[in-house]
Design a protein that fits this description.
Number of strands: 32
Distance between the termini: 92 Å
Radius of gyration: 34 Å
Number of helices: 23
Strand content: 15-25%
Helix content: 25-40%
Strand order of the largest sheet: 8-7-6-12-13
Structural class: alpha/beta
Largest sheet: 5 strands, parallel
Length: about 700
């Protein structure tokens, strides 16, 4: 890959030779004003046929156009051009002279192969657009859309006026239900006004005839003002649009797009479905929505952001609900419970917006993020940190990762870099802080955070903006608390995983101060493992390495109850009858029986603290204990141990073991007063299944069917 660096008007202290050594290649070459006078150098590189990496994101559009205009250059469909920002992320900071290891790390990560392609989700829209709102506002919006879209108006309430000319279908009523997404919305409304707008010819005779003025140019009757003269009915006899005896009608229709001008949004979640635009009375939002709506005709695709493995899901068993973290955190309401039907959950891919919060809070790894997956993300983190260390950065100061979104988060970092260039009080992104752009900050969670610490990061910081839903702030805070409890328990000390919040340029000074916190020591030896597609496997690899490098290893580390993916199960042996219903409920094989003896065994490594065993237990004998058990250097938690064991109960007739003493005693105690279990019938409860049958057929006093 050919790497082109632009030292924008010589504003950065770039050391091309040091970068070449760090990257182990003759590249990169350093240019001045590559997008202007240095453009021929870019064209020469474009004609070479090599893959290109341009260290400039500001002029990415210009470089793409320049590639298309260069004779002999391969089109980007055959040879993509990659871009990376080294200017605002480090070259313009006050300590830019020490930023060579960071810049090398950013360049190395940008040279990695593209992530594996993922399946896509398709949408199809033919332009059927529903506009909901007051008459005049809805008509005004329709005028802006009607030349491109097939517009239908749903007028809510009276007031305002419809134009004399009918340009599109118009309905009046109260919206009852709106569901769906781009290309597949379904709207249901109730029409209860005496005037049917579909039949109305807008001749205005009713307005003229009404003595109370109860009808206006919205062509709806104010029923509170109406005094039942019915003059309007008489003058509308030919059209038949007015009928006071007409029952309220419920109408359901399908649409591709929805423009909502109502005061309150019909979808209240933080991430409404694609194709739905709520603008209220805001004219600027209306203009933005109209521009987007006009382009939403055709077929569209987006990545399928998640992978779901139902067999790992700890949401439900036998209609009992355990973990529902993904359902609670989803700001798009794309996840619903299937506990009453197939079990597990269902994710609607058309509603999913790819935040990845569900995968972050999922303790079992049943939900995994796919865009990119954890294997590719882990490779990027390891490349960043190993290249930084190889280039001498670790000797200067241990690296910190700054995870941010590709949109709002990237803008904040760019603003910080620009402020460092012009404001003496702002220092900019420090040389030891490595920015990591993600589609969404919530998509990187506990497994990758701990892996990053194991790879040599001293800190992991997550930059949150107003782009993230409140649910994500809370979920990430819970996960950060778990990570910090583990790291502090191992003696690493301090709050190594932190959430940083910045709205926009107003918070740059505070963010600048947060980023310049003193560096903490990293692990003595960086890990070399690769992250796995299975979340639990990555967690185990990271924890094993952190334990091996830890300043201290306690027997157990208590974890916060909220969000803890590890823990123990405590059994009240006085209550437990060893019915083993908890074993059947456990989705992760953490609880198991012993075919040879009445035992309840437990493998703590497998437990995800979903609570299904606790919910299922008929004796309420189980409680959860969130913790990370590290006895015997962490080996004990991977081995089965016995939680409860009793002697088997033996048949009073043949002596064969068939249950437990407590289970038989409980059963006899509950059935002793029942009419069907008296005398010999009660005694049979102490027999095994075979002996019960024999006793019934050999007892001369037993009532038989032939006796009836």
């Amino acid at each position: 890959m050919k790497t082109l660096l632009c030292n924008c008007n010589r504003t950065m202290p770039l050391d091309g030779q040091a970068l070449s050594r760090a990257l182990g290649s003759d590249d990169p070459t350093v240019h001045t004003t590559l997008c202007r006078r240095g453009a021929p150098a870019f064209q020469h590189a474009a004609r070479s046929g090599d893959d290109l990496l341009v260290a400039c994101t500001q002029e990415s559009r210009l470089f793409l156009e320049l590639n298309d205009a260069t004779e002999g250059a391969a089109p980007v469909t055959e040879r993509p051009i990659r871009f990376v920002n080294i200017r605002e992320t480090g070259g313009w900071s006050k300590d830019a002279a020490a930023a060579t290891p960071k810049i090398a790390a950013l360049l190395a990560a940008a040279q990695l192969p593209d992530p594996e392609p993922v399946p896509t989700v398709s949408y199809r829209s033919v332009g059927r657009c529903l506009v909901i709102g007051p008459a005049e506002a809805a008509e005004g919006a329709a005028d802006l859309l009607a030349d491109k879209l097939d517009v239908t108006l749903l007028v809510e309430g009276r007031g305002g006026g419809l134009p004399q000319r009918r340009e599109c279908a118009v309905h009046a009523g109260r919206l009852l239900r709106l569901t769906g997404w781009l290309g597949a919305f379904e709207a249901t409304w109730e029409s209860g006004n005496p005037i049917d707008l579909d039949l109305c010819t807008r001749c205005n005779a009713c307005i003229e005839a009404c003595p109370e003025g109860a009808i206006d140019f919205s062509y709806q009757i104010d029923l509170e003002a109406c005094r039942s003269h019915r003059d309007c009915v008489r003058v509308c006899e030919a059209a038949g649009a007015i009928d006071f005896q007409r029952e309220a009608q419920t109408v359901t229709e399908a649409f591709d797009l929805v423009l909502d001008l109502g005061a309150q949004a019909r979808f209240t979640m933080h991430q409404p479905p694609q194709g739905y635009f709520h603008v209220g009375g805001d004219s600027s939002k209306l203009l933005q929505a109209v521009v987007q709506l006009r382009e939403l005709i055709g077929e569209f695709e987006k990545p399928k952001f998640f992978q779901y493995k139902q067999k790992l899901c700890a949401h439900s068993r036998n209609e009992k609900v355990g973990c529902d973290a993904c359902i609670e955190v989803c700001s798009a309401r794309a996840i619903e419970s299937q506990a009453a039907t197939t079990g597990g959950i269902r994710v609607e891919p058309h509603l999913c917006v790819g935040c990845g919060a569900c995968t972050t809070v999922c303790p079992s790894g049943a939900l995994g993020y796919a865009y990119p997956n954890t294997v590719d993300q882990g490779r990027r983190l390891r490349t960043l940190l190993s290249t930084y260390a190889k280039a001498g950065g670790a000797a200067q100061a241990p690296a910190a990762l700054l995870i941010h979104s590709e949109k709002a988060g990237a803008r904040v970092i760019e603003d910080l870099g620009r402020a460092a260039r012009t404001d003496a009080a702002i220092r900019g992104v420090p040389a030891r802080v490595l920015p990591v752009a993600a589609w969404h900050t919530a998509s990187i969670g506990l497994d990758l955070w701990l892996a990053a610490i194991a790879y040599g990061a001293s800190d992991v910081w997550v930059l949150l903006t107003q782009e993230e839903a409140p649910e994500y702030h809370e979920a990430l805070a819970q996960q950060a608390a778990v990570a910090n409890a583990i790291l502090e328990g191992l003696g690493y000390g301090g709050e190594r995983v932190r959430l940083l919040r910045a709205r926009d340029a107003r918070d740059l000074a505070a963010l600048d101060a947060e980023l310049h916190r003193p560096a903490r020591a990293a692990v003595r030896q960086a890990a070399g493992f690769a992250t796995q597609s299975d979340k639990r496997s990555t967690l185990e690899l990271a924890i094993d390495h952190l334990v091996a490098q830890a300043p201290q290893v306690p027997e157990a580390i208590a974890l916060p109850a909220a969000g803890a993916p590890f823990g123990a199960v405590r059994v009240d042996t006085e209550r437990c009858t060893l019915c083993l219903s908890c074993v059947g409920a456990c989705p992760e094989s953490a609880l198991a029986d012993n075919p040879e003896r009445p035992q309840l065994r437990f493998i703590e490594k497998n437990c995800v603290q979903c609570g299904l065993c606790e919910t299922t237990c008929p004796e309420q004998a189980i409680t959860l204990q969130p913790r990370l058990w590290l006895a015997e250097g962490g080996r004990a938690r991977k081995l089965p141990r016995v939680l409860h064991e009793v002697e088997p109960y033996r048949c009073v007739r043949c002596g064969k073991p068939f249950g437990t003493l407590k289970a038989v005693e409980v059963m006899i105690g509950k059935l002793a007063g029942h009419a069907a279990f008296q005398g010999a019938a009660l005694e049979r409860l102490r027999m095994c299944g075979d002996c019960r049958v024999v006793d019934i057929y050999t007892n001369p006093n037993e009532v038989r069917i032939t006796d009836l």
